[in-house]
Amino acid sequence: MRNLRISRLALLVILAGSAIGCSPHSYLDDICVVLSERRSWYSSARAAYEKWGVPVPLQFAIIYQESKFSAKATPPRLRVFGLIPWGRGSSSYGYAQATEGTWRWYMQRTGNYTAERDDFADAVDFIGWYCSLSEELLGIPKVDGYNQYLAYHEGHRGFQNKTHHEKQWLLKIASDVESRANRYRSQLDRCEKELNHSASWHFF
Prior knowledge:
Blueprint: H1 2-19, H2 31-37, H3 39-52, H4 56-67, E1 77-80, E2 84-88, H5 100-110, H6 120-138, H7 145-160, H8 168-203
Antiparallel strand pairs: 1-2
Helix pairs in contact: 1-2, 2-8, 3-6, 3-8, 4-8, 6-7, 7-8
């Protein structure tokens, strides 16, 4: 009965957002509502946290920024003369918007050769691995959402070369990611106990 009430709440939030003209992604602002519909996502993110030490809220904040939780997300198509559709500017794909090259590197370093970019469990494991590597190579704490996102977006070499310093738009986005991670953390405080209980029940 409780799960039914949560599901109805999620539906009402989505419908209310549509009715008043909000973004179709408005319900993604509350991670408890999202996870009420996607319990397996929490289990996957928790497993990535236990493996790599990257907080669950930061994992979700990065995925929100990169793909709005869309498994098939791709960069927008480039346009010639602003009109004619052309190729995409990047090979980024999936929940984490990992490029083909970085994804191959991840598979080689972790041995996860069956990983798919449109698989949520693989995506959060990738984020955990990458952020853990950012701490190892760049000294960025795993709880530092601001700089972790800058390194995620620019790559480790780009971060070292401070390419982000001349991109005010990117600094703003990194600040947004950090704020969202903090907000998700506060929200999880109210529903994480239930999510952990649900995960344990499904395990047995």
